[in-house]
Amino acid sequence: MPALEQLSRLELPARAFSGFVPIACSLGGAAVAAALFVWSIGNLALMVLTVLLFAASLLMLIGIYMQEPNEARILTLFGRYVGTDRHEGLRWANPFAMRERISLRARNLNAPHIKVNDKRGNPIEISAAIVWRVQDTARAVFEVDKFETYVGVQAETAIRHLATQFAYDDGEDLDPDETTLRAGQDEVVKALVAELQERCAQAGVAVLEAKITHLAYAPEIAQVMLRRQQAEAIISARKKIVQGAVTMVEEALRGLSEREIVVLDDERKAAMVSNLLVVLCSDKDAQPIINAGTLYA
Predict the structure, then answer these.
(1) pTM listed for this prediction
(2) Burial of 52 (0-12, 13-18, 19+ CB in 10 A)
(3) What does the alpha-carbon distance between residue 47 and residue 36 come to, in Å, rounded to a whole number?
(4) β-strand partners of 284
(5) CB 137 within 8 A of CB 84
(6) Which of 57, 155, 167, 248 could form a disulfide with 119 if both were Cys (CB 3.0 to 4.6 A apart)?
(7) Which long-range contacts (C-beta less than 8 Å, at least 24 apart) are formed by 146-151?
(8) How far apart are CA 213 and CA 274, in angstroms?
(9) What confidence tens digit (pLDDT) does each residue in 130-152 have?
(10) Positive or negative CA dihedral for 201, 206, 208, 212?
């Protein structure tokens, strides 16, 4: 029994047909009924036949509906799901069946800004834009209540869970190749789409695409984190400057020694290295001081 109930929740093709033949039959039957009405006066049997023919024509006309591209009609007969019609154009189905229109077009969901803690515990703000569409109409209508609201709630839940799995930015406490929210956008989006698809599968919804639209530290720590990023950038730049300066000093000493331009003892080399490092690593222009005497004066 549970297996049969589960099967009834999957989308099934409905027994619906093109509406041109039924509408022609309906109009033709109504015309015949109108003609017989004149002859049915005084004839009870003919009058009953006229009424039945007119009622049948009207009933057939009720079963006609117009369906646009990327639309579907879910048909239920006396509370039982009997199928989904995905064909476009003029259609006809059982007049007694209830027909619920559902759009199969791609839809956008702009998730609101959410404040959540990242992997390090830092409060951040994050939001995403999600493109989705209904894939299984039976699940969308019968498995969940208001599938649009369901997708919105699941999207917010998935974004919150995603933010806790990654750190906002690189740091000394992370592995060098670890994915972060700011630097690993492609991996983060793949993880978000996979989680959304898993969460929305019950509602018969397919997630087509997702993009992070907003990512920032929460206002209460934004200034502190900005100073931290600036300090890290300054330290990184200083390291490169020092490495370059050391390389230049090595080349200068090697060149002087190889060309025998001047012979320097260890003390003079130390003084030269000190002066060159000051000049090369200083933020401001160096002011030279000319020594008119000797180093040992």
Answers:
(1) 0.69
(2) exposed
(3) 8
(4) none
(5) yes
(6) 167
(7) 147/203, 147/204, 147/205, 150/200, 150/203, 151/109, 151/200, 151/203, 151/205
(8) 50
(9) 999 999 999 999 999 999 999 99
(10) negative
